[in-house]
Amino acid sequence: MTPYIQRRDKLVRRFAEEGIDALLVTSGPNVTYLSGFTGDSSYLVLTKDRAILISDPRYTQQIADECGSLATHIRPPAQKLLEAAAEVLDKLGTRFVGFESAALTVAEFETFKTLIPSISWKGAADRVEQQRMVKDAGELDLICDAIGMAERAFVVFRNLLRPDDTEKDLCDAMEQYIRRVGGQESSFRPIVAVAERAALPHAPPTSRTVNSGGLLLVDWGVNGGLYKSDLTRVLDTRTKSTFTDKGDATKLEEVYAVVLRAQQTAIRAVRPGVQAMTVDEAAREVIADAGYGDYFGHGLGHGIGLQIHEAPAIRPHSGTVLQPGMVFTIEPGIYLPEWGGVRIEDDVLVTADGCEVLSRLTRDLSDMRAFA
Ligand code: ZN
Ligand code: ZN
């Protein structure tokens, strides 16, 4: 049985308790998760015993390659995607249809209601996303591949780093390295931020050069084809003059040590049965106790998989209970305006009795010197 059939079966088993006899899947990543098809502009209709991919003739060959055994409705150019979906649902005789309220616009929903008024619709935001939180063995392998590629890209990045490189050059270069080590593409535009630019958690790259500040924050990830990775490291780019001029020698050590302690404390808190907010709190407490509580302004982490940000969110008030097979980032940070920011991000897996850190790049500051 392919993983796709298993995933669809698991979802369909919940139809009875939800009171639906079909599910219309309109989110691209969810269609991929349930079918293996990676093209876009396509929907998937699931009933108790049918799965039908609704697509168009541009994808006929790709469908044959990626999910050849799946039933399809290939719409002619004159038929719109929504009309095709309505036709399929109508032919199947479905009455109570679940839809993805987070992946259908109000206009699309109104169109469906007009096209097939006999259907009673039941929206839910995250049916498939909830299932996607727990990865199967094949997904885990692909995530680990994406992490391995990210790590190799970072090694190249470090080896080729020069003091007069700009943030923009390095951002472009990282995207190249990611492809060179086998990645399909960068899973998001890398963040490369020098000194006080790193105080912006999502700093866009500028013409600032590496040697104009004492630290370099790099946040990057690889899209291995389907699954993604996400890592952050801070390189120590201080030279003798920055040490003496700005007295930053102790500041970087101090802030870095707090962030690393927060990250390691959070990682120790990860195990099945624990709520996501408890893990967030573990890191947040370390940062607050060190006096930097006001300078950690984002959630601790996020799930990774087919998307770079997916469930579970590891943040305050998140009651999501951790389960074996969940994969997410742990990325505490401290951002001090005018000085800079430190974030350390790794990807972890919830195991049967705890946590496995999947990314293995060093996070010891003494190993992070950029220039000898
Ligand atoms: Zn990141
Ligand atoms: Zn992240």
Terminal CA distance reads 54 Å
What is the CATH topology assignment of the largest domain? Creatine Amidinohydrolase
Poorly predicted residue ranges: none
Mean pLDDT over all positions: 96
Q: What small molecules accompany the polymer chains?
A: zinc ion
Counted by DSSP, the helix tally is 12
Q: How many individual domains?
A: 2
Give the CATH H-level superfamily of the largest domain: Creatinase/methionine aminopeptidase superfamily
CATH architectural category of the largest domain:
Alpha-Beta Complex
General description of the model:
The chain is an alpha+beta fold and 372 residues long. The chain has two domains: 3-132, Creatinase/prolidase N-terminal domain (Creatine Amidinohydrolase, Chain A, domain 1); 137-367, Creatinase/methionine aminopeptidase superfamily (Creatine Amidinohydrolase). It contains twelve helices and 18 strands. The strands form six sheets. A six-stranded mixed sheet has the order 4-3-2-1-5-6, sandwiched between helices. Strands 8-9-11 form a three-stranded antiparallel sheet, with helices on one face. Helix 11 (248-269) runs antiparallel to helix 12 (276-289). The N and C termini lie far apart (54 Å). The mean pLDDT is 96. The structure holds zinc ion (ZN) (2 copies).
